[in-house]
Amino acid sequence: MIKYELVNFCEFDKYAKKAYSLIHNETENKNLGDITLVNEKEIADFNMMVGGSPCQDFSVAGKGEGAVWTCKDCKDENGDDYQYNPLEVHYTKRDKCPKCNSTNIEKTRSSLVVEWLRILLEKKPNLAMYENVKNLVGKKHKYFFDLFIKELHEYGYNTYWKILNAKDYGIPQNRERVYLIIIKKELDNGKFEFPEGFKNGVRLKDVLEKEVDEKYYLTEEEIKRILNTNFKKDTYKNNTLSICNSLLNKKCNIDFLVADYRYDEGIRIRKDNISPCLSTKSISTSLSGKPLVILNGRLRTLTPYEILRITGFDENDLHNIINKNIHINQIGKQAGNSIVVDVLYYILLELYKTMPYLLEDIKLSSFFSGIGHLKKQFID
């Protein structure tokens, strides 16, 4: 097996940093905290970096602002605060507004990728991995992504990227993400390819708990609330009315069905019996955006155990988090933010097959916005 040493990790959220430490058996003292306050010249050296900036500004579900910085000291032609893409400014001049040289700059969450680049440039690890929502390479944000890649090449790295779906790597969740592999040019032999997907037959039903607390089943009031959805499409309206009425009348004869609920669409059926993509609201007070299952004629949400299972965490990970009284809402948020462990495993396996020297004596720094990264012993 190949092992690694965690040099540090960077997590701002107080619940996520606790869960991260429990899962990976690491002290919270290794947490760097707010990445914007990290002095890249003072932290310990590392030769591998994994990371991902907060995805909300790139995701379809988020605000979609992208990596925009706003100068609070000068205006554009319309009299609004001047906005610009920080990656359009060369990294040697990035600390000042390109228009007025002010340092009074407001940054979006996803522009934290620039902070990630700042640390990578200083430490120059042999290998880095970056993960984010697939919308990062969509029409709206592709220009930003191309600038990101261009800057990495200027640092002296080769890059490989691809959209991979967790459902193609043994996990019953429809979760598409962009994976970017970053390798020092002088160490890259050009042989790396992303792992091919496979079908192992595992479906959501296979990872459900056998006994579930009554609180996860929807009440009549919640079902009636779904019936009041402002439907956008007749297909979802018909599905929702049919399912909810049969549930309310105690005449639902569905043995098993996977779905999710959107407040403006209704219940959407997953015919492949794979969970819809987890969001940061996968366990919350709101029903919208939650994976739902109908099992033996009753409708319920997923439990914390089930949510962590379809993100690739094992039983020890589940017990470590849940038994330490971390609130279930936080578990859903962390799973929604996390990389899927199994996808990362198969990427690393391909790297090991083609360039095993990159995975020798690993000193790791983890900048994921979430709780997943490498396992303590991650390749057999």
Could you write a compact summary of the structure shown?
It is built from nine helices and 14 strands. By secondary structure, the protein is α+β, with helices and mostly antiparallel strands.
Provide an overview of this structure.
There is one protein chain. Helix content is 26%, strand content 21%. The model has no long low-confidence stretch (mean pLDDT 88). The longest helix is centred in the middle third of the chain and has 15 residues. The N and C termini lie close together (5 Å). Helix 1 packs across helix 7. With 380 residues, it is of the alpha+beta class.
Number of helical stretches of at least 4 residues:
9
Order of helices and strands: EHEEEEHEHEEHHEEEEHHHHEE
- Rounded to an integer in angstroms, the radius of gyration calculated over CA atoms is 22 Å
As residue ranges, the low-confidence spans are none
Residue fraction in strands: 15-25%
Write down how many β-strands occur, each being a DSSP E stretch of 2 or more residues: 14
**Looking at the chains present, what oligomeric state does this protein adopt?**
single chain
| Protein structure class | alpha+beta
- Residues in helix, %: 25-40%
- Average pLDDT taken over every residue: 88
The biggest beta sheet is recorded as: 7 strands, mixed
End-to-end separation: 5 Å
Q: Describe the global form.
A: globular
Strand order of the largest sheet: 7-8-6-2-13-1-14
